[in-house]
Amino acid sequence: MSARGRARRRALEILFEAEQRDSDPLKGIQQRRDSTDQTINPYTVELVHGVVAEREQIDEILSTYAQGWTLERMPSVDRSILRVGTWELLFNDEIPDGVAVAEAVAVARDYSTDASPEYINGLLGRLQQIKPTLLA
């Protein structure tokens, strides 16, 4: 697995944990730094900061285009995966769109339900198609 792949998974863990604990994900990064000797990949930090900074817009987009599920009804791990994937797709020009979608689907295969990868692929694929109108 690539360094960015590991960074995505770590960002997902931090965002998921913060949502479960109703806490600040940025404080979660700092707590990990303070309480462990693990190095946190700079891309993990970039992902978490990006999702936090754009969360309102990301959630609005996901709520608008998610079919059959409200954000509140989705498994929380799927919400976190979709937030990371949407941030990479819409706000990080360094990551090719197809990579952002494929990586989110791969993470869903490892962390979520059997139906989640297909759903995440469909939703992020739709966002990829309409990306120019979303950022206009």
Which characteristics define this entry?
globular; mainly alpha; 0% strand; 6 helices
Structure description:
The mean pLDDT is 93. Helix 4 (76-91) runs parallel beside helix 6. With 136 residues, the protein is mainly α. The longest helix has 24 residues, at 42-65. It is 76% helix and 0% strand.
Quick summary:
This protein is mainly alpha-helical and 136 residues long.
SSE inventory with pairings:
Layout: H1 3-21, H2 25-35, H3 42-65, H4 76-91, H5 97-111, H6 116-134
Helix pairs in contact: 1-3, 1-4, 3-4, 4-5, 4-6, 5-6
The rough form would be described as globular
Distance between the termini: 34 Å
- How many extended strands? 0
Helix content: over 70%
What's the rounded overall pLDDT mean?
93
Radius of gyration using CA atoms only: 14 Å
- N-to-C SSE series? HHHHHH
Main sheet specs = none
Number of helical regions: 6
